[in-house]
Amino acid sequence: MESGGTIIWEGDPANARLDVNAVYSARPDINTLSGTGARDPENAQRVPVELVLNIGGTLTSIENNFFFRLPNTFESQQNSTLSTQLASINRDENLKLIQATNFMLMGDFIPVFDRGSTN
Known about the structure:
This protein has helices spanning 74-77, 80-91, 93-106, and strands at residues 6-8, 17-26, 49-58, 61-69. By secondary structure, it is of the alpha+beta class.
C-alpha cells in the first residue's frame, strides 16, 4: 500500500468511499521491451519498475485503474527510453493488461517485438 490512501464512511457502512493506491515493485529485464528478440539472462538489464493500482469509487461500485511507472531512483530516472516504453504500454489497454499480468506473476515483461504487440 502507498501512504495517503483513505476509506471514508458516510451513512451506510457497506458503501464506504475508497481512495487507495497499491504498488507492486519488481526489477524486470527491460531488454524484453526493446524488440531485440529472445531473452539473454547473461545480458539482462534489470531496473526497478512499479505497477500502481488505484482503487476508488465505493464498495458497491469499485473503480480501478492501473499503470506502470518508474520509482524515484537515480537508476530508473536516467532511463528515458524505458520511460517512453512504459508510457506506450500505459496507452494501450490490452497490452497494459497483458504486461501487468505477467509482471505480477513472473516479475518481468513479455518480450515485445513489434511495437504494440506481444509474442
